[in-house]
């Protein structure tokens, strides 16, 4: 049987589609503008108030960035922190969450302590003193260990593990598996959506490391890419106060405009996270419902 939509339903559908399309364009346009400006020459950037499509595509900004040792080094540092930090976050969060689903001594006390840290934070100064006392200042581990376990992610992980049928655990135990084997052979394969969702959350958190890098790192060679991007923004603000003669001198030295350098740097720093998401989308759609009430 074929159903026909009424005129009101068709108009409502068109209005909803138009509104969602407009919102999508508003969110996509900043990324497109960054992309367009990063490939624009200095002369066209100065002459145009709004660049939607460069008349002449140039790679000067990208060439300048990839030839800069500071940016490449910071990119490598950020990749290391993101990969190692994300794996450590998932490992410790998942193992602690699984342990809190077992009948162990003091389980309720540990859960209350986790909830307490979720509500009350130590603060910046006490955390800095702890990091300093443990000798982690100016170390990459100072960006990973203080944020090793997120209390909210731990609680949701625990709830996800509790939703897994206990009969599967009992069957594995009957077959002779210990707790570690049950976790690796049964729990982890059934928890791919949770690992994908929280892995993406942790990866974005580690990739965007900025404030803690400034707080705990003293060596500029260990700065993350976000700190370098901030320095580029400061350079951009300073360049806006330059006279036309100074700008002409910079052009004469074949240095790309700081505006296009900043846009190219932002695009390079954002692109890896955008490329990772499609590979996790299948599991991410399920993972966002982790811990939800089932009907």
Automatic annotation (TrEMBL):
Compartments where found: Cell membrane
Q: Which InterPro entries match?
A: MetI-like, MetI-like_sf
What's an example Gene Ontology biological process for this entry?
transmembrane transport
Q: Where is this chain primarily localised?
A: membrane
Could you tell me which PROSITE patterns the record lists for this protein? Answer: ABC_TM1
- Membrane spanning segments where? 75-98, 110-131, 143-161, 195-217, 261-280
* UniProt keyword Transmembrane helix present: yes
Domain ABC transmembrane type-1 stretches: 75-276
Any one GO CC term of the record: plasma membrane
What keywords sit in the KW lines? Cell membrane, Membrane, Transmembrane, Transmembrane helix, Transport
Q: Transferase as a keyword?
A: no
Query: How would you describe this protein's topology in the membrane?
Result: Multi-pass membrane protein
State the family it belongs to. Answer: Belongs to the binding-protein-dependent transport system permease family.
| Record's protein name | Putative aldouronate transport system permease protein
């Amino acid at each position: 049987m074929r159903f026909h939509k009424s005129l009101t339903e068709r108009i409502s559908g068109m209005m909803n589609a138009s509104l969602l399309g407009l919102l999508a364009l508003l969110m996509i346009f900043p990324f497109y503008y960054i992309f367009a400006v990063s490939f624009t020459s200095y002369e066209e950037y100065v002459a145009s108030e709004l660049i939607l499509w460069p008349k002449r595509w140039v790679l000067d900004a990208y060439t300048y960035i990839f030839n800069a040792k500071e940016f490449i080094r910071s990119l490598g540092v950020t990749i290391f922190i993101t990969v190692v930090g994300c794996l450590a976050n998932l490992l410790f969060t998942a193992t602690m969450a699984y342990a809190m689903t077992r009948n162990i001594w003091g389980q309720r006390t540990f859960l209350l302590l986790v909830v307490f840290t979720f509500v009350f934070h130590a603060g910046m100064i006490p955390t800095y003193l702890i990091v300093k006392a443990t000798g982690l200042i100016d170390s990459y581990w100072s960006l990973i260990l203080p944020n090793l376990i997120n209390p909210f992610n731990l609680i949701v992980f625990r709830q996800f593990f509790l939703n897994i049928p206990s009969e599967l655990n009992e069957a594995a135990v009957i077959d002779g598996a210990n707790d570690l084997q049950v976790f690796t052979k049964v729990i982890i394969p059934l928890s791919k959506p949770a690992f994908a969702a929280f892995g993406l959350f942790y990866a974005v958190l580690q990739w965007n490391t900025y404030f803690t890098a400034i707080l705990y790192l003293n060596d500029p060679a260990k700065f993350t890419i976000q700190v370098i991007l901030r320095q580029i923004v400061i350079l951009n603000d300073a360049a806006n106060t330059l006279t036309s003669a100074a700008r002409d001198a910079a052009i004469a030295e074949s240095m790309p405009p700081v505006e296009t350098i900043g846009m190219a740097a932002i695009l390079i720093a954002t692109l890896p996270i955008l490329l990772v998401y499609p590979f996790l989308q299948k599991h991410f759609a399920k993972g966002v419902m982790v811990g939800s009430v089932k009907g």
